[in-house]
Amino acid sequence: MKKTVLVSGGAGFIGSHVTVELISAGYDVVIADNMSNCDMTGYEGVSKIIGRELPFIRMDFCDSQAVDKLFSDYRIDAVIHFAAFKAVGESVAEPLKYYKNNLMSFLNLLDAAHSHGGCNVLFSSSATVYGEPDQSPVTEQTPRQPSTSPYGNTKQMCEDFLRDCVKAYPDIKGIALRYFNPIGAHPSALIGELPRGVPNNLVPFITQTAIGKRECLSIFGNDYPTPDGTCLRDYIDIVDLAKAHVCAVSRMIDGKMKENYEIFNIGTGRPLSVYELVTAFEKVNGLKLNYKYADRRPGDVVAIWADPTLANEELGWKAERSIEETLASAWAWEKHLAETGK
Ligand code: WQD
């Protein structure tokens, strides 16, 4: 019998790509999303790619009764929790909005999972929990640093909620995936990142500049202590990232976990500078990008990249797409948006 995975925030950027990979791996998926940070583009794109419509429940995970009803209505074998706010700067300005939403929604989910007989829970965490590490690559053993933003705090706290629930309730098993910098789009160009307003993240800003929606990309800082003076990150392709979720879900459902709570870094292990990323984008897509150097962005870490050995060995997962393929897919997606008037 097919296993069912609930994907909270399944209409968003990462959730939509994960849904596609879950379906192609033979899982059933139930999508739940309150659409607070996306429209139906992601859901419609998923339907086109997989050739059918999936159950879609428009609901807020802060509504405990709605979460409880979800677990009554469906037999859920695993849940992947994406539903959260994610803008670092906004979280500094509106901490309560972030704490209420990101913490309550996950607590409601854990509570419902436990009261309905338990569940496998995959939490969407972030490399942000490492703060500014003393050195890279970081392993899962690298100590977490005090967070510099309420957003980062919510990621750390939710990891702790999961760890403590797993310890106390044998019917809950948990995996936290710590993503580095997810970029790119599905090869079909039917799903991708669709930021509202001015993008905070680098790649959407690049593609919007290339298409003419933005005048000029600002590279934040070129005087960092790195080879070319710009920050170093670990850019992970979104389809590769999505596949890591399938590996993690299978590990939980198939009873292959070594501990009841596990953490994995999901990155490539290769650092790339902002400048290298920009020039790679220009080269692979055969265009010139209008960019300038600007002041450092407050709060940015200089350099962070993953040691993905644990995920490679334990999940049997490895980042496969080249940066060129990934940056070509990001550009194809931006052009698809332009063609469809978005
Ligand atoms: C990457 C690099 C910028 C925009 C954030 C969150 C993290 C995670 C992913 C989210 C940095 C530079 C950026 C621009 C630039 N989670 N940059 N010009 O900050 O590494 O990580 O997103 O949901 O938790 O903190 O990603 O894409 O914003 O920046 O020069 O217009 O690009 O300074 O060096 P970041 P990013």
Architecture overview:
This protein is of the alpha/beta class. 41% of the residues lie in helices and 17% in strands. It is built from eleven helices and 13 strands. The protein has helices at 13-24, 41-50, 64-73, 88-93, 95-115, 150-168, 202-211, 238-253, 274-285, 309-315, 323-339, and strands at 4-8, 28-33, 56-58, 78-81, 119-126, 172-179, 181-183, 217-220, 232-233, 235-237, 261-266, 272-273, 291-294. The strands form four sheets. Strands 3-2-1-4-5-6-11 form a seven-stranded parallel β-sheet, sandwiched between helices. It has a two-stranded parallel ribbon with strand order 7-10. Helix 1 packs across helix 8, helix 3 packs parallel to helix 5 (95-115) and helix 5 runs parallel beside helix 6 (150-168). The N and C termini lie far apart (40 Å). The mean pLDDT is 97. Bound molecules: UDP-4-deoxy-4-formamido-beta-L-arabinopyranose (WQD). The site of UDP-4-deoxy-4-formamido-beta-L-arabinopyranose (WQD) has 18 residues, from helix 7 and strand 8.
Radius of gyration: 19 Å
- By DSSP, the count of extended strands is 13
Strand fraction equals 15-25%
| Ligands (ions, cofactors included) | UDP-4-deoxy-4-formamido-beta-L-arabinopyranose
Number of helices: 11
Run of helices and strands:
EHEHEHEHHEHEEHEEEHEEHEHH
Provide the low-confidence segments as ranges: none
**What's the average pLDDT?**
97
Shape: globular
